């Protein structure tokens, strides 16, 4: 088996069916299996998937184990040499699985490969990110990036400063379309991806750990999929992402660095206080600076 495609379902029957059908229709020239993990959905019986797609391996979790936990359940049953974690709100529009697989096979320095993610209207989602950094935050805060040549600015800053039209090495990418060799799991405890977060920032942690092993995180702009962003999950605590980011920084860089990072990010978002979302984000970072946690709303 070349690749095990793991799809996590939680109350998104129609979206998940759309994802599965696109995989079956467009994935060619490689041996693959689809492993569907139902994370204790209550929308309908997960057996409906088995009835509709008999070839799919169905795993029914009795509890919602979150994004990492659900994918780890799927990987326990995977037989492929490579793993593709695929969000249920993704639709393939071409043979992206094979294209990414060939790139991953041809370059053993790549630990993770992803592809271009597009909104349904064709807009590109900015998923390539640098690891949390005080220095890069101040580069942006002081507008130092404005004097950088365009190519340097894009490479140094990534995220919204990079147009995502060309291939590039990144620090981290989203877990939306996340392909890696299964041998990587041998270097993790119990052959599982780290389960520090229920959801949000788990892909940041995965990429950090994989880069620490000496591998590259590679963004391939040569192929793309449609991603119905946020379609595969309910809206969580609005502060969960910031709390998890802070926990990641604190654990991997130290608590003092985490507090200074939160202060720096808060100051950066203060430059956009005309936007209510930015105001809330700034307040969240200042709360993290003061007490290391944002209270749930």
Task: Give a nutshell description of this structure.
The chain has about 300 residues and is of the alpha/beta class.
Set down the secondary structure blueprint:
Elements: E1 3-9, H1 13-26, E2 32-39, H2 47-52, E3 57-61, H3 66-76, E4 82-87, E5 90-92, H4 96-106, E6 110-118, H5 134-141, H6 150-157, E7 168-170, E8 177-181, H7 202-212, E9 216-227, H8 240-253, H9 255-270, H10 276-291
Parallel strand pairs: 1-2, 1-4, 2-3, 6-9
Antiparallel strand pairs: 4-8, 5-9, 7-9
Helix pairs in contact: 5-9, 8-9, 9-10
CATH topology of the largest domain: Spore Coat Polysaccharide Biosynthesis Protein SpsA, Chain A
Helix fraction by DSSP (H/I, runs of at least 4)? 25-40%
Helical/strand content category: alpha/beta
Order of helices and strands: EHEHEHEEHEHHEEHEHHH
Strand content: 15-25%
- Output the number of helix runs: 10
Q: Which regions have little confidence, pLDDT < 50, spanning 5+ residues?
A: none
Strand segment count: 9
Q: Rg to the nearest angstrom? A: 19 Å
Number of domains: 2
Going by CATH, the homologous superfamily of the largest domain would be: Spore Coat Polysaccharide Biosynthesis Protein SpsA, Chain A
């Amino acid at each position: 088996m070349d690749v095990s495609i793991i799809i996590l379902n939680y109350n998104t029957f129609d979206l998940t069916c759309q994802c599965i059908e696109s995989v079956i229709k467009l994935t060619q020239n490689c041996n693959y299996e689809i492993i569907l993990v139902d994370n204790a959905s209550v929308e309908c019986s997960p057996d409906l998937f088995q009835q509709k797609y008999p070839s799919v391996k169905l795993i029914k979790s009795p509890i919602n184990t979150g994004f990492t936990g659900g994918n780890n359940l799927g990987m326990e049953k995977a037989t492929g040499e490579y793993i593709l974690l695929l969000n249920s709100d993704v639709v393939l529009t071409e043979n992206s699985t094979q294209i990414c697989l060939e790139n991953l096979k041809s370059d053993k320095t790549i630990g993770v490969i992803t592809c271009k993610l597009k909104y349904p209207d064709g807009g590109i989602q900015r998923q390539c990110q640098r690891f949390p950094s005080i220095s890069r935050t101040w580069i942006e805060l002081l507008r130092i990036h404005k004097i950088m040549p365009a190519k340097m600015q894009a490479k140094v800053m990534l995220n919204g400063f990079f147009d995502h039209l060309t291939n590039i090495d990144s620090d981290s990418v989203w877990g939306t379309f996340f392909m890696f060799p299964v041998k990587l799991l041998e270097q993790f405890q119990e052959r599982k991806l780290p389960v520090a977060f229920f959801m949000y920032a788990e892909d940041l942690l995965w990429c950090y750990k994989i880069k620490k092993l000496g591998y590259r995180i590679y963004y391939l702009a040569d192929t793309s999929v449609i991603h119905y962003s946020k379609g595969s999950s309910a809206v969580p605590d609005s502060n969960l992402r910031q709390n998890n980011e802070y926990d990641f920084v604190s654990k991997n860089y130290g608590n003092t660095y985490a507090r200074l990072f939160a202060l720096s990010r808060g100051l950066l978002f203060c430059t956009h206080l005309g936007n209510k979302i930015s105001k809330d984000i700034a307040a969240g970072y200042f709360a993290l600076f003061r007490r290391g946690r944002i209270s749930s709303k």
